Amino acid sequence: MACAAFQCARELESRDLRKGDRVMIWGANSAEWVAVFFGCALHGIVAVPMDDAAPPAFAQRVCAQVDAKLVVCSRRHARDVSTSSLILEDLRVNIGRHSAAPLPAFAIEQNDPLEIIFTSGTTAEPKGVVISHGNVLANLLPFEDEIRNYRKYERWAHPVRFLNLLPLSHVFGQFLGIFIPPLLAGTTVFQDSLNPSEVMETIRRERVSVLVAVPRMLQSLREKIERALADPGERATWDANIGRLEGKHFLWRWWRFRRIHRQFGWKFWAFISGGAALDHETEQFWGHLGFAVIQGYGLTETTSLISVNHPFRLGRGSIGKVLPGREVKLAEDGEILVRGGGVATAYWGAGALQPVAGEDGWYRTGDLGHLDSAGNLYFKGRKKDVLVTPAGMNIYPEDLESALRRQPEVRDCAIVGIDRGGNAEPCAVLILRDGQGDASAIVRRANDSLAEYQRLRHWLVWPESDFPRTSTQKQRSSIIREFVRARMKDGGDRPVQASPLAELVTRVTGRTITRLHPEARLDDDLQLSSLERVELLGALEDRFQIDLSEAGFSATRTVGDLEKMLAGDGGRRAVYHYPYWALRWPLPWVRFAAYYLLVRPAIMLLGWPRIEGRENLEGVNGPVLVIANHVDDVDVGFIQTALPARLRHRLATGTGGEALQALRTPPPERRPIQRLYDRVKWALGVALLNLFPLPREAAFLKSFAYAGHCVDRGYSVLLFPEGHHTTDGKLLPFRAGAGLLAARLAIPVVPMRIDGLFEVKQAGRKFAAPGRIRVRIGEPVQFEPDADPRAAAQELRKRVENL
């Protein structure tokens, strides 16, 4: 990463950017994003991070306001940028011409601005927080001193791996994603998907130690685990174990719930939650299971953290103790005030710079808190959200939400104030699990645990599967409040202005959609392409943080079908196992030996092929995507033999997912010896041929993710897009998934064709004369990331057919 940052700094210098100039960074979390950020810091250039999900109009206003000299953005944002731009996906190519040697010393002062982070909404005038190099250092020094005390223990868990799901455009995401890990010589893993299953799989596969996420993710992971306790008896046993282990040493709890720990991997031990307050029930849930839940508190204006829980001395329910180097006090009304080196320099507005702190140096956070005798800070809510009843009593929405979330039927909730002559009364907005439940009974039970003045007398059920949310999964309170006002005004069922489903369809297609009719057809009315359908599936899983059946999604035809899936009527998801272990040492060496000892001699006996077109691969060092026709099970051996050694020995092959899974998990009706035989075949196929499942009909998203994982580690991928052996020697239609993968991987695609093998097979012969079977290699081709999958598949079929 340091080398890439030095190269980025030299690239910026070559573009005549100087100290104090602004560069906007607009894209998803990635290593390239980090390299550009540090490249700016090294050269004294001010970074302007922009949320990847920010509307183009807002990004353009910010770009104009800071007078950005360059925009470094992802390819999909490039069309919305009028300023000179550099594409993140092409960064490695663009900076490759520069030296990676360390830069000479550059004069940067502590008060020099490092970045400007814009935190205002999309409709207000953009308002940025100017954060200096000194602000970041003031926040890092307390951690560096504390980490030094534990470095001798860190070697037993080295390297500490952080899975950071927070956007790097937010200061808390930067802090836990790129500032703290280097102090531990740790590693940061980024992931776009917020799907709980994929998050757990990444934690286990990458041997992650700590998950950094917003409270919503911790709640979603909790719901996933609780959904597995569908049987009442199993749930009762679970609750009994929780009760018995209350207050026990975490090792006892870890051992009792080792099945849960196995799902996350044995190295995982902690959650770091930030960006919003974590409810007490979720914190307690993970604590009962033996995981550490570390909460912190801070704002952009304070360069992230003001207080944080010590990982080995947790203050339950608190947001930690105040960090050294800053002062915190409570105003008369309970507002948290902070002073210290972490408080940002100024606000960058349309006019002159405005100070963040008051004349006395205290910054008013707008949050309400409480300090106990041990120095633990507790978050009570936003000052502006506190409801003052006609009786003059203060009601904190978090207290009411906590009481509601304890009800098993409540999936999520929000508290909104109803105006009462200048004062307010609370109204609960509920999202019920599976859309079922008696809201009045739920509120009545919640009221039993509340004081008289806190009790709820108004409630509504939200008509969608989830609340509108920001990119950091916070509720869009303004939309929820508007919905409550409309319902209270006329008492009728008024639809939400823009449902979450409509928002996602708008984002995926780029076409503005405000309302969706249940009878609207996905293909005809919404005009979703096959690529957009795949993107919508991933977006739905991320947005609602649930697992959807890909097979069921493939069968959906209308918006109503999608809504049923989101309500839990989507069917069971197909399960396939992906052999990540097959990519690790020593398996590559085992395959190398197996090829020359087993596969190559077998191909020589079966019929040594005549290879044509190998010159087309000159200068191609991989990885590549190999597309070939499918004649017989021995096709893989002929393809390997035809490829040059630099590609042959790092090749992963996609094969029928259904058949491969049947070998790994044989049906119970097969005899024990047959089941053992099947599993041995699966293990040998995966270990010696590097096979991975590629389902023919649906459930292929994870297969594509695995293929991308292989490419990231330098492996080429072999696919047979027909999906079945040919029955007449002619090419079968290519599946659109091959075109989608070719576009997504963004690597050269090599078409190959096997001729002569079908005739040998039809004649019933086991062997062929040398040269009778011919393997032809075509010229590599590459597709744009937004290429239509069906058109790409047809183009590949034509190229294979013409060989």
SSE arrangement:
Elements: H1 2-14, E1 22-26, H2 31-42, E2 46-50, H3 56-66, E3 70-73, E4 85-87, H4 91-95, E5 113-118, E6 128-132, H5 133-148, H6 151-154, E7 161-164, H7 171-183, E8 187-190, H8 196-205, E9 210-213, H9 215-227, H10 232-244, H11 250-256, H12 258-264, E10 270-273, H13 280-288, E11 292-299, E12 304-308, E13 321-322, E14 326-330, E15 335-340, E16 346-348, E17 354-355, E18 363-371, E19 377-382, E20 387-388, E21 394-395, H14 397-405, E22 410-420, E23 423-432, H15 439-447, E24 458-461, H16 477-490, H17 500-509, H18 530-544, H19 550-555, H20 559-569, H21 587-607, E25 610-612, E26 625-628, H22 635-642, H23 645-648, E27 651-656, H24 657-664, H25 672-689, E28 691-694, H26 701-712, E29 716-719, H27 736-745, E30 749-755, H28 757-762, E31 774-777, H29 789-801
Parallel strand pairs: 1-2, 1-3, 3-4, 7-8, 7-9, 9-10, 10-11, 23-24, 25-31, 26-29, 26-30, 27-28, 27-29
Antiparallel strand pairs: 5-6, 6-16, 11-12, 12-13, 14-15, 15-18, 16-17, 18-19, 20-21, 22-23, 30-31
Summarize the biggest pleated sheet. 7 strands, mixed
Shape: globular
Uncertain runs with pLDDT below 50, 5 residues or more?
A: 492-498
Head-to-tail CA distance between termini:
42 Å
Find the CATH topology of the largest domain: Rossmann fold
Helix count? 29
The top level CATH class name of the largest domain:
Alpha Beta
**Category from helices, strands and their pairing:** alpha/beta
**CATH homology group of the largest domain:** ANL, N-terminal domain
Instruction: Bin the helical content.
Output: 25-40%
